[in-house]
Specification:
With 191 residues, the chain is α+β, with helices and mostly antiparallel strands. The protein is globular.
C-alpha cells in the first residue's frame, strides 16, 4: 500500500511540474518566502529611539528637542529650522509618524530654541554618547538649558536590566556623565 501512495504522490508532482512547471515551483517558493518574511516582521524589535527620531525628522525636518517612549508610541518634539514647533507621535511597531500639533512657536521661547538649533551635539549624538557611557536602551532624551549657570546639556534616560539611568551629555563637548539611576525595588545609585 505504501508503494501505491508513493506512486500517486510522484505522479501528482509530475503533473504539477508538467503543467505548472516553473510557475508552480516559483509560486510555492514565493509563498514560503512570504511566510518567512511575515514571521521575521512579527519577530522584529520595536522602533528604537534613534529610529523614532529619524522617522519624525524625515516627516518634519528640524532638530529634536525631546523624545520619550509612552507604551506603544514615541512622542517627539521638533523645532524646525524655520522656528516652527511640531509635536509628532511615532508608532513603535510600524514607525508610522502622526503630526499631533505644529505651530509657529509663538510662546516666546525663541531664545532657548536658538541655543538648541546652534548646539554642536544633536539629540541623536547625545543618545549614542549616553549608551556608550551606560549600555542599554534609550527611553527618553530632553534638551536642558539650565539658565542658572548657563550650562546646556541633553538629559538621556537609559534603561537596562530593570534600572533607569540618567545620563547628562554636554551639548558642546558631547561628554556623557552618569548622573544617577533608579531601580525597580533597589535603591542603588551609580554616581
Amino acid at each position: 500500500m505504501h508503494s501505491k501512495h508513493k506512486t500517486y504522490v510522484a505522479s501528482a508532482a509530475a503533473v504539477v511540474l508538467a503543467f505548472g512547471g516553473p510557475v508552480a515551483a516559483a509560486a510555492a517558493h514565493t509563498a514560503d518566502a512570504a511566510r518567512t518574511a511575515s514571521a521575521a516582521a512579527s519577530a522584529r524589535a520595536d522602533v528604537d529611539a534613534e529610529g523614532a527620531a529619524a522617522a519624525a525628522l524625515k516627516k518634519y525636518p528640524g532638530v529634536v528637542e525631546s523624545l520619550d517612549k509612552d507604551d506603544a508610541v514615541w512622542h517627539v518634539d521638533i523645532i524646525g529650522k524655520d522656528g516652527k514647533h511640531a509635536e509628532v507621535t511615532v508608532d513603535s511597531r510600524s514607525g508610522k509618524v502622526f503630526t499631533d500639533n505644529a505651530d509657529d512657536d509663538s510662546d516666546g521661547d525663541s531664545g532657548g530654541n536658538k541655543e538648541l538649533l546652534a548646539a554642536k551635539v544633536t539629540a541623536q549624538q547625545a543618545m549614542k554618547a549616553a549608551v556608550a557611557a551606560h549600555p542599554g536602551q534609550v527611553w527618553s532624551v530632553e534638551w536642558d538649558d539650565d539658565d542658572d549657570n548657563g550650562s546646556r546639556y541633553w538629559n538621556v534616560e537609559v534603561k537596562s536590566g530593570g534600572k533607569t539611568t540618567n545620563v547628562h551629555v554636554d551639548a558642546t563637548t558631547g561628554k556623557a556623565t552618569v548622573s544617577g539611576s533608579d531601580s525597580d525595588g533597589d535603591d542603588n545609585d551609580d554616581d
